[in-house]
Structure formats: C-alpha cells, structure tokens
Design a protein that fits this description.
It is a single chain. By secondary structure, the protein is an alpha+beta fold. The protein has one domain (about 5-270). It is built from ten helices and ten strands. It has helices at about 5-20, 50-55, 65-70, 95-100, 110-135, 165-170, 215-220, 225-230, 240-250, 255-260; strands spanning about 40-45, 85-90, 140, 150-155, 155-160, 175, 180-185, 190-195, 235, 240. A four-stranded antiparallel beta sheet has the order 1-2-8-3, sandwiched between helices. Helix 4 (about 95-100) runs antiparallel to helix 5 (about 110-135).
Length: about 290
C-alpha cells in the first residue's frame, strides 16, 4: 500500500474510533462527546529533533527508536531501519470550553470530567492504534502505556521521559505557548497522544518558523490573557512556574476531586477565555 494510502488508513481508523467509542462520551450528569474529531500527523522516528529533547526536556527523554526497542526488550540498533511516530490531538468540545470560560478559581465539572475520563479514552485510543498495527504484523508501542514510562520532579517541576506535547511538535501539529501549553490549529484546549511503529508513514512538515510562533505573546508581547486567567499567579512574562501551579492545584482546588468524583484535577483556566483557546491567534482562522 502506498505511503499516502497507509497514512489515510491510520487517520480514518483513529477518527472512527473517536466517533464510535463509548469512552469518548461524558458521564452523567453531563452528556455529549468529550473530544471533537482528532488531528493526526506523523513524524520520522529518526528526526534529529528527538535528540534535541535530551537537552530541551531532559537527558532521560527517549527517542522513538529507544522507546520502541525497550517495548520489545531489544537494542535500538536492532530496530527496523525506518520508524514512524503517529501523533494526535484530541480537541476539547466547544460546550466544555464554554463551561470553563465562566470559571475563575477551578475547573467546571465538564472540564474536570474531560481531564479524567478524557485521558481514559486517550489511553484506549493508544491501545487501539497499537493493536491495529500489531495485528497487521507491524511493531508498535505507546510509550506512555509502557512500564518504562516515568514522571519526575525537579526544581522546575514535573517532566517525563516521553512528552506527548514535544512529540506533537515533532509531527508538525503546533508550537508551544507562554503557559507551557501546545497551540494547534484547533487551539490549546486539548489532550494529545502518540504511538511509535515501524509502519512507513510520510513525515508531516513542520511549517512553524520557531517553537513559539503560534503564541501571540511571543509575536506581539502584548497578549497577557493566560497571565490574567491564572488563579495561582503561576504564569508571568517569564513563562510558567510548574511548581506554583501544582501547589495551587493541591492546596486550593484539590477538594474538587471528591466533589466531582475524579482522581486527578487541573483548572485549565489558561486554556479557555484566551485568544488561542480554539485556534492559532496569530493568523486569521475560521474555526
């Protein structure tokens, strides 16, 4: 099958799963989809940008070759010559975004459900893509679901050895923001995921001029919307203070986990009621 046809097959399979899986539905008392149709793009598994992540993220950050090799208990040098990374964005629905725009201290119930149940769906999507590929005879692994996936804490805050946002950047899906979020053509309000495989897929181009080019602040230095939205004061013109953000979530809105019946919480205020909520604000968009 030609590479473009293969890419279309993967894209349609991911979109079909999102449209039919009951896991992509909000539980009562809410209703409706958790996510809109996914954005899907691909990266070359040996793109040099993955080596840059050893410095940008942390030396522990895995390359796709290392991630797939560890999943199969193999040496990276013994992996197939060509590897691909499938990366996707799960845009949060307008109804959920609208509910969170009204908030000033913590998330709406719909937003909290999206953070908790939405990631459960994201995990199922990762498993679905891996199964889809392995049943066709390919090697495939979702690094975030592997036993080797780990999160760490440093003086700057939390980080992991496989950053889904950085993988999405490698696949040309968007750029980073002042708030540490990731701005795609569908904006900053989303979840993202990825799978590494030896299925040959055409690498999507990275068209952004730099890794902040979708963020209005870095274009005009006037947009301070996410700074004003942050109830923790964790975002300044110098960037995002992960420690301050985490402390606020634990001390000020942690009680919402019990109230909403979820095991993780995040306010998401910096992702709503901002110019980049559902589009790239530095250019005209019809979304």
């Amino acid at each position: 099958m030609p590479a473009q046809e293969t890419a279309q097959f993967v894209l349609e399979s991911i979109k079909a799963f999102a449209s039919t899986s009951f896991l992509n539905r909000l539980p009562a008392p809410e209703e409706g989809f958790i996510f809109d149709p996914p954005l899907v793009q691909f990266a070359d598994g040996d793109d040099p940008v993955f080596l840059e992540y050893h410095e940008v993220v942390n030396p522990s950050h895995l390359t796709p070759r290392q991630a797939l090799a560890q999943a199969y208990g193999a040496n990276p040098d013994d992996m197939p010559k060509h590897l691909s990374v499938i990366s996707w964005i799960l845009p949060i629905t307008s109804r959920t975004r609208q509910s969170n725009r009204q908030q000033t201290k913590g998330p709406s119930r719909r937003w909290a459900y999206t953070r908790w149940y939405g990631e459960k769906f994201n995990e199922a999507l990762r498993e679905h893509v891996v199964k889809l590929l392995t049943e066709k005879g390919y090697l495939a692994a979702a690094p975030v679901l592997q036993p080797y996936f780990k999160t760490f804490t440093s003086e700057k805050g939390h980080y992991s050895n496989w950053s889904e946002r950085h993988i999405a950047y490698a696949a040309g899906l968007g750029t980073f923001s002042l708030s540490d979020g990731f701005i795609t053509e569908r904006g900053i309000a989303h979840r993202c995921g990825s799978v590494v495989t030896n299925l040959a897929l055409p690498a999507s181009p990275r068209t952004a001029s730099n890794h902040y080019s979708n963020c209005l602040f870095y274009v005009n230095h006037k947009c301070l919307a996410c700074i004003r939205r942050c109830p923790a004061g964790a975002i300044t013109e110098r960037g995002h203070d992960k420690i301050k953000c985490s402390e606020y979530i634990d001390s000020e809105i942690g009680y919402l986990k019990e109230e909403y019946g979820v095991e993780e919480i995040g306010c998401g205020l910096c992702q709503t009621k901002v110019p980049c909520e559902f589009k790239i604000p530095v250019r005209k968009s019809n979304t």
